[in-house]
Amino acid sequence: FAVLDVCSLGRAKKETDMSKIYRTFKTVFFYSILIIVVPVLTFFGSKQWLFDGLLQLPNVSSNIYSAVSAVVALHVALFLFIYKAYFTVSTDNRGSSNRVDKVPQKED
What we know:
This protein has 2 helices and no strands. The protein is mostly helical. Required for the assembly of the V0 complex of the vacuolar ATPase (V-ATPase) in the endoplasmic reticulum.
């Protein structure tokens, strides 16, 4: 029975590690797509509908304002990614008071 428990424990640990890896990949993939797509959509959307359509600005002014709005959107997406990465606590570190792994101490 002890061998069976060790095998099931190892399998459970492997599944837990794989779920952590998948969760991390999913988060990074989501924010990568967000960082790529949102500024592009913001540039063309604001140019087409806001600056060319609603405000009827000249072409150069419309491009400049659209570029500024795309840069702002990029910074918002980057801020969201950095906030998520910095303030996310992994499940195995919730019990400890700090996020740094403890170094084993030498016993005399």
